[in-house]
Amino acid sequence: MPRDEQAIVAAVRAGDRGAFETLYRAYWPVLVKFARRIGGLAIEDARELVQDVFLSLWRSRERWIVRDGLERYMYGAVFHRARELGQKRRRAIDPPFALAEPTVDNSGPHRPVVAELEERVNAIIASMPTRCRQIYLLYHADRLDTRDIAKALGISITTVNRHHARALALLARGLAKTEWADTLAKVLESR
Asked: Where are the domains positioned within the chain?
C-alpha cells in the first residue's frame, strides 16, 4: 500500500476528522456511482448505502485494517454492503437462490414439475464451491457483466470466466443426472 494511503489510514484510525473528511471527499462520488451500478439502486439508496459504509468505518476506526490498498478496500466494502442489501431484498421477495421467474406455464399440472426442477437447480447452486456460486449468482441473479464482477471481487476477468464456466459445467453435470437432461439438450440445441 502506498505511503500516502498508509498515512490516511493511520490518521483515521487515530481519530483525525480531517483525514476522514479527505477520504470521504475522495471516494464519495465514485462509490455512489459504483453502488448504483452494481446494486441497481436509485441515487438516494446508493447515497445511503455509501453513507452507511463511511459511518461504519468511522465507528470501528480503531480496528480498521487495510491490507490490499485503500481503493480496493473501499470498493469492496460498498460491494459487500450492496450485496447484503440485494440479498435481503431478494429474501423478502423470493426464496434463496431464486434466479428468475419461470418462463414456462407454472400452473395446473406443470407446477409440481417446475417446482421440482427449481429445487434441483437451487440444490446444485448451493453445493457449488463458494467462489463459483458467488460468480454464478452475480452474473445470473444480479446481472453484472464480467468486468464489473472482476472489479468488485478484485480478481481478473480470466478468473471470473474460469469460475463461471466451472459453475455452468457443475449445473449441466448436475442436471444431466435427471430426467430433464433430454429436454434441456433440446432447448440448448434450438438456440
From this structure: 3-92, 98-190
Q: 442489501: which residue's cell?
A: 85
CATH 3.40.190.10 holds for 3-92: no
**Comparison of pLDDT for 101 and 4, the residue scoring more:** 4
Using one digit for the tens of pLDDT, what is the confidence trace for 115-133? Answer: 777 788 888 888 888 888 8
Q: Is 149 exposed, middle or buried (0-12, 13-18, 19+ CB in 10 A)?
A: buried
pLDDT tens by residue, 78-89 = 988 887 776 665
Give the whole-angstrom CA distance, residue 1 versus residue 137. Answer: 31
Distance of alpha carbon 33 from alpha carbon 131, whole angstroms: 25
